[in-house]
Design goal:
It contains 6 helices and 12 strands. With 262 residues, the chain is of the alpha+beta class. It has a single domain, classed as Fumarylacetoacetate hydrolase, domain 2 (Alpha-Beta Complex). Strands 2-1-10-5-6-7-3 form a 7-stranded mixed beta sheet. A 5-stranded mixed beta sheet has the order 4-12-11-8-9, with no helix packed on it. Helix 1 crosses helix 2 and helix 4 packs across helix 6. The termini are far apart.
Length: 262
């Protein structure tokens, strides 16, 4: 049974309050065991609309859970998506205030800058490629408004797909200059290499995230627009730096992007 509009608004207000007060809450599925992914996205859109009414602007979108294994653990069969707000975008080298977050983590990602409008359904790798200006090295700051990072699949979109911030590298590289699946990553915390990987870890190619997202947005009569950023999903494991620590992602051709946590 789908959530009523009143329930959607109530859960959206609860998630927004958890974000603002940095006070975690229990997962929605604990109260509504039959919560669906569609219900989770309805809560997300209600929260998005409230933030836009408060003066915030959507500058793009993030895609998460691009690998099958973590999706299986949550009982879902496709990635998740959520908005990136302009107020949460940082330049490389930025200081991230850990006190403004609940239980943050950071992921190394490849992000795309849209050149043209891209609207589903029916978006393919080819049509997505033509609509993209280029790619940048990126970090995604993730946070979970649920206690102890414990939640089920439908809870994730209701928490804006766990998005909390986006750090952009300084170079936009044309896709013609990249072999996206083979773009390599060296992932560091405090100068120590924590992992290496290639971007094939992101659904075979990060471009697949743009395809999925454009087609998903079409279900809500939404689209990707020129200038939008699309963060394609984690290339490697999540890191959990504390105040006083730093992270750096260095890619083969995209260059590096870093952040320090204070």
């Amino acid at each position: 049974m789908a959530l009523s509009d009143k329930q959607v608004q109530a859960f959206a207000a609860r998630m927004q309050k958890a974000r603002e007060t940095r006070t975690p809450v229990g997962p929605i599925t604990a109260e509504v065991p039959g919560l669906t992914m569609d219900d989770g996205y309805r809560v997300q859109r209600a929260m998005l609309q409230a933030r836009m009414r408060a003066g915030e602007r959507v500058a793009g979108w993030k895609v998460g859970l691009t690998s099958a294994a973590p999706r299986a653990e949550l009982g879902i069969n496709e990635p998740i998506g959520g908005p990136i707000f302009a107020s949460t975008i940082y330049a490389t080298g930025a200081a991230i205030d850990t006190a403004s977050l609940i239980a943050p983590g950071v992921e190394a990602e490849i992000a795309f800058i849209m050149k043209d409008r891209l609207a589903g359904p029916g978006v393919t790798l080819g049509t997505a490629l033509l609509a993209i200006e280029g790619a940048v090295a990126a970090l995604e700051i993730v946070d979970c408004r649920y206690r102890d990072w414990k939640f089920k699949g439908p809870d994730a979109p209701a928490d804006s797909a766990l998005g909390a911030g986006f750090v952009a590298g300084s170079r936009v590289v044309p896709l013609a200059d990249l072999d996206l699946p083979l773009e390599g990553l060296v992932w560091e915390q405090n100068g120590q290499i924590m992992a290496t990987a290639t971007a094939a870890e992101v659904g075979g190619t990060p471009l697949a995230s743009v395809v999925w997202l454009a087609n998903k947005l079409a279900e809500w009569d939404m689209a990707l627009h020129p200038g939008d950023v699309v963060s394609a999903g984690s290339v490697s494991k999540i890191l959990r730096p504390r105040a006083g620590e730093s992270v750096r992602a260095t890619f083969t051709r995209l260059g590096s992007v870093s952040a320090r946590f204070v």
